[in-house]
UniProtKB/TrEMBL annotation:
One of its GO terms (cellular component) is cytosol. It comes from the Bacteria. Transmembrane segments: none annotated. GO terms for biological process: trehalose biosynthetic process. Belongs to the glycosyltransferase 20 family. Signal peptide: none annotated. It comes from Tessaracoccus rhinocerotis. This is Trehalose-6-phosphate synthase.
Amino acid sequence: MEVDVADEVPIAEAGATFLVVANRLSVDRVTGPEGEVSWRTAPGGLVTALEPVMRKRGGAWVGWHGAPDEVVEPFEHDGYEIKPVSLSAEEIEEYYEGFSNATLWPLFHDAVAFPEFHREWWDSYKLVNQRFADAAAEVAAEGATVWVQDYQLLLVPQLLRAARPDLRIGFFLHIPFPPVELYQQLPWRKELLEGMLGADLVGFQVPGGASNFLRLVRTRTSHKVDRDRVQVGGTHVCTAKAFPISIDTEGFRELAESPEVVAEAEALLTELGHPKVVFLGVDRLDYTKGLRQRVRAMGELFTEGKLDPEDVVFFQVATPSRERVDEYRRLRDDIDLLVGRINSEVGGVGRPPIVYRHSSFPRNTMAALYRIADVMLVTPLRDGMNLVAKEYIACHPSDRGALVLSEFAGAARELRQAYLVNPYDLNGMKDVFMKALNDTPAAKGRRMRSLRKQVNEHTINDWADSFLAALDSGGSRAPGNEG
Ligand code: GDG
């Protein structure tokens, strides 16, 4: 089926000089009451950060439009080009739900769920990566800069370089890069490393990711490694470094201070019966986020009487995610059961101690929740960065707030003044939850101010600027290969 798009235009003759290649496009399709199709900018930090760069440089965004078996023609949106890539229903199952989300995702997150290896999934992954590379090669101007995003597209840098050696290629991995011992399980370990090495610059969330990658390159390929630089054959040098991602700090603060959000926060408190204390969790419903452990720890604090359900509420938002992948269905059932059991055991006839919402909320509601949360619980078993932790710091207005943060989130490297926890240690976690609640105002204030300074000084724009500056100035071409 072909979709008609009103402002459909051909990509400029000379091509785009700056491209982002990501699994998903930066826009969501909206269908009006008469069946008319329009596109709306998808919410999210990456789009916010990259749109200005796109407009300045003349850009294109290459990605899947979100529906199976459908060809959508390129079009212009907000001053840059959109180049949709199509996926068949079978490819969504094998490349996306399979290899990306049931092989790479669990393996790269410390195998907290069992990674599945299937040869058909790998075949599909290769095929789809080739399609993304072809689409980028088609719209890129001579010498353009191309920024490839994340684990769904690990092979694209190499495939793109093969087709277009004139391009400058960057790659950023949003999730952790695993330790050598785990990565080695992958039957396609060498191919995936070579795929990433096609880039001039490979970015990771934390330095540990870069060093895991470089160690693997040393042991599994024949390329010469000199500190963070890899001489890839005779063609180019690939540099591997950490570029911790962040948020639009000012944008979040302004949103949280807006009269609408302040009013919504008040309304939420009223709805909850004005509890003395609000604990908050906000996550995609994903087994890496440590929800089982967090809910159990909070449940025990309620059942042991350390938290009084009359005064305290634990509000947990779990945004629906990857619902067709088995492991995610199991998790959903587990959490439903756990929350139901705790709520039926603890508390009186009024509001339950755990308010659990398996749905996604508008940005305003998210900001309102951050405003009212006295203690924010961010306790993933493993996380590339975790933006929720940073958003809380940007949005929470008072010095009395407290952020509890897992040591295993990339964000813990920067947010040292959070109340750090090991999410596998239930008793330890319970102690830290209570400390975060009962610490002195002076101690909490010191921590919050230091955390705020960190997120003020390191924003999503700094992240994009520093990555692109490093990519532009790479000087990584081999002699005789200059564009
Ligand atoms: C991956 C990596 C890395 C969530 N629920 C709602 C909603 N959200 C927004 C949050 C936040 C984002 O989604 C989630 O970002 P995280 O960083 O917490 O986690 P992942 O989705 O796993 O992201 C992660 C990130 O990429 C960036 O590199 O930090 O480690 O896993 O912005 O606010 N937003 C709205 N409604 C919801 O219900 N509007």
